[in-house]
Amino acid sequence: MQIRDVPTRSFRSIFKWGAPDVFYDVDDRLRGFIRDTLQLPEERFSELFHPGLEQVPDLPAPDLPEDTLARLEAMVGAENVATDGYTRAEHCCGSAYLDLLRLRLGKVEGAPDAVVYPRTEDEVSAVVALCHDRTIALVPTGARSSVTRGLELPRGGISLDLSRHLNRVLELNETSHTARVQPGMGGPAYEQWLNARGYTCGHFPQSFEFSSVGGWVAARGAGQQSTHYGKIEDMVLGLRCATPRGMLATAPFPRAALGPDFTQMVVGSEGTLGVITEATLKVWPHRPKSVLPMTFMFRSFEDGVTTIRTLLQAGIGRPGVCRLSDPEETQAALTLDGFAGGSVDRTLQRIGYRPGSRSLMIAATEGDLAMATATAARAHAIAIKQGGLPLGPKPLRAWWKRRFHDPYLRDDLMDYGVMTDTLETAMTWSDLPQVWRGVREVIKSRPNTACLTHISHAYETGANLYFIVISAMDREHPTRDYREFHGRIVDAVVQHGGSLSHHHGVGRLFAPWYPQQVGEVAFEAYRGLKSALDPHGIMNPGAYGLGTG
Questions:
Q1: DSSP letter for each residue of 310-337
Q2: What's the CATH fold of domain 288-403?
Q3: Which of 42, 126, 199, 219 is a plausible cystine mate for 283, CB 3.0–4.6 Å?
Q4: How do the domains of the chain map onto residue ranges?
Q5: Residue 469 gets which letter from DSSP?
Q6: What is the pTM of this model?
Q7: How crowded is residue 33: how many other Cβ atoms within 10 Å of its Cβ?
Q8: Percent of the chain with pLDDT over 90
Q9: Is the pLDDT confidence value at 549 over 90?
């Protein structure tokens, strides 16, 4: 049973991923895979788990003085201040599993007292100043695709939505290859604007269609082609950030020796220091003809890891897309694509590429065509030396077609009472094997649980691992069940040498582990920085474990 009609102003209209008229088709093969892997009875697929079709109820009246609301309306216009229950509920969360679970259970928690849509940078500064003067909590938002509980306001306050008005490219400098962009501009609009002028942004996270430039910068995000273009912190040259102490502005120097980097101080701060109002980003010539496939099957995950590491350390150019699925994810992909057990599969097994060990690599080049061609040729030589079997362009094309579509499946899986979540972490090449094995061991200790893992971003010194967890919910205690399981997984990540996050950020979800990860001195330094820029602690209180939000 799949829900196609989503009632307006319902809980589901808030937590549903993506476009309202786009859905993931759960066919018999996928349903069979989930049923068999999780050992679910067939009736589990007809008894929906809190699908969220009810209307969002009225919320308590905003806990803001009338004169504060009047001041906000005078600043940005009455039409740009919303206090109705549905709009406030929309802005109470992002897209973390716990966010979605709460909404399914009919719980609106951490909602703002008002949603404010500023029209200009001056209006942003004025709202921040008002909140500072009156000690009102404030969270900047854009497309709200955060998966780290980074947008909650448990004690009320203002959600400052930058997507309605602050959503333009202000300048393209074709000499320097930079663009000045407002934070509320969505990924597709930004890329289309650049493509029309012969450029690309180079930043394509899985949430690309439903995320904003400001969110990319605030969360220190990564796109799926970051191996070539870099993460967002590699793209930001300068920015402007409205803090409670005034405007923090950094110039877009290509490099500078001016002491600590104040641009990087704001990148990844997730709204805890101020509101990003503008960013100057690198852009690149748009060269779609340079995307050349490099896809291989390896006899083991270790062989694939060695191939990617060797390729990136050889100094022969960096691919854009660079992904390696571990044996469990590889087998799942072959099963869902209908190859498992067929003639191609039998041939693969006969020549040594067997289930339980084989691993699929999908990669592609970027940049200048001559350089891309040379990189592809050298990559093929490295892969073949490591036992890689070339598969041609089809696997890459199949992934490219669905790369932004997979998150739509989450809604249907939760309808079936299936817990589905992702965790991602970064580590050095030397630590990667122990992180992969250690985290998988914890995930697989839960009975009938799938752990699909891949490298999705790789660099000269290391890579990230992206874990996809699929398991049956405890329908009686789903929140407690998730918190306990998720906590054990994060403990394993830290214990085995992985970072808390590679590109999702920290928010409130990972805040309990943050001081341990960075150390007491660094955490106190961050606390001191926040105190200097946000002395009343109004900016996204609770994120990173700072403040009492």
A1: HHHHTTS---SSEEEE-HHHHHHHHHHT
A2: Alpha-Beta Plaits (3.30.70)
A3: 199
A4: 169-285, 288-403, 513-545
A5: E
A6: 0.96
A7: 17
A8: 96
A9: no
